Amino acid sequence: ITETVFVGDSNTEGLALFEHLPAANVIGKHSMPVQGVTTDDYQLIAEDNPETEEDESQYITMLQVLSNIQPQRIILNFGTNNAGKDASADYFMHLYSDMVAQIKSVCPNTQIVIASVLPICAERENYNIRQDVIDHFNIALAELCRTDGYGYLNYNEIFKDAESGYANSSYFSSDGIHLNGSGYRLLLDYVTNHQYNINR
User: Fold this and answer.
1) Residue 44 contacts residue 24 (beta carbons within 8 Å)
2) What span, in angstroms and rounded, lies between the C-alpha atoms of 6 and 8?
3) Secondary structure (H, E, C), 58-97
4) pLDDT in tens, 31-90
5) Nearest one of 154, 164, 75 to 120, comparing CA atoms
6) Full-prediction pTM beyond 0.85?
């Protein structure tokens, strides 16, 4: 874990926000879609000067942060914010493959592990996010890892209820989408006790 950086959306951000991991091991942002890794502002590197009229704040992307720190291993967890009811798994994989390729280009010696998109609860605040879409995303992600040699973490093994097809609500907060304390502890235990057969 100490040599691993978790990269993802708000469920990843919560690893540091709720002090399950040091901030140095977490690159996460609320509502971050997979394509945002290479395009969206993430880390402030220059403050605005209030004495000037123009906003002089400067940000860098998650990709640039990864390039700067060159981690030994990263675990990617994106997809919840792409899983709207009309989302296409093929287009999602186009975006995901492009993201991974760009990470590899700037971090050639970093081990990449792809985590499945976390399941959501049947009762949740945002019904635009669909479990059936997430299921299709995860099949595609597993195939990407199989064909391109990346490690894969199947979070469904620990978080998904086989009978309902949705997340086990005991590991999620009241919004039905974000992990609670028990969920984070289970996730870290799962990550710690799995090995990755990584070819590249």
Assistant:
1) no
2) 7
3) EEECHHHHHHHHCCCEEEEECCHHHCCCCCCHHHHHHHHH
4) 999 999 999 999 998 877 777 777 778 999 999 999 999 999 999 999 999 999 899 999
5) 164
6) yes
